[in-house]
């Protein structure tokens, strides 16, 4: 059954990040009062990771490793390819940025850093954190241990605790994101609470991840805000707590929304909106702020990016993803 509230939660996370990038950047002077709120919009990223932990656990259930890989490939890549092209076209048209075919193709894989190429847009770092998470889940399914949650989740939780305390094991970042592991773990714990009940282990994992996430949120604030005060860091922690509470109430059935097409559409726009809004959007705002005020440009840019995201979803992602998925699934079935 589709949880409609997750679609709205995804959209809230995405629009929070959009507002953070447009309003809270150091060079912006628009909306000085609202920027005091928008500067916490970066926390939409850990919210994405919590949702991802839940969705991936749900998606991996009763699937083979390669069925899971195909479903994640379809979710991640087709829209990415169009969004990379869109960003390249915008930046090449109105800025001095130049991109080679090799850099673009490398970005299509999300493995561009291993090939020595920079990201076309800085937001792609979150996709790479997702990709590592997917790879770990793929291996768990492949070796038939994905359902042994108590074992691998305990090990992952323990390693995350040790890393937040001592920065070790240093190699943890090679295969999973240590700075954001607690958020993925939280999503998985929410899935377990929903499917397996409110057992002691499930709640222990969720509360333990909350403690770790609190430390992470406090420390990471300095990476996203300019010289944050202790109060601002504590506000970041409180916002993360609110995410946990909302997700918990959602999975135990205390928050329910009727399925409406607008909610589903907003959820569908989230991924392309996230991919295209940042570098291209800020470049357009800067380039044409002489035509309209920055405040007006920001509003126009949000509307424009929502429209482009809708076009990408309707004209490409939706019609292309299903045929590719069906082809890959049929090929997989024939290979058995």
Q: What's this entry about, in short?
A:
By secondary structure, the chain is mostly helical. Helix content is 74%, strand content 0%. The chain is globular, with a radius of gyration of 20 Å.
Mean pLDDT: 95
Beta-strand proportion: under 5%
Number of helices: 13
Major sheet size, sense and barrel closure: none
Low-confidence stretches: none
Based on CA atoms alone, the radius of gyration comes out at 20 Å
- Compute the number of strand runs: 0
How many domains in all? 1
Shape label: globular
Ends distance? 30 Å
Helix content: over 70%
Order of helices and strands: HHHHHHHHHHHHH
Label the structural class: mainly alpha
Word description of this protein:
The chain is an all-alpha fold. The protein has one domain (4-335). It is built from 13 helices and no strands. The chain is globular and about 60 Å long. The chain starts with a helix and ends with a helix. The model has no long low-confidence stretch (mean pLDDT 95).
Any key phrases for this structure?
336 residues; mainly alpha; 74% helix
Topology readout:
Elements: H1 4-23, H2 35-38, H3 44-60, H4 65-94, H5 101-109, H6 124-142, H7 149-166, H8 181-196, H9 200-224, H10 230-251, H11 261-276, H12 279-288, H13 294-335
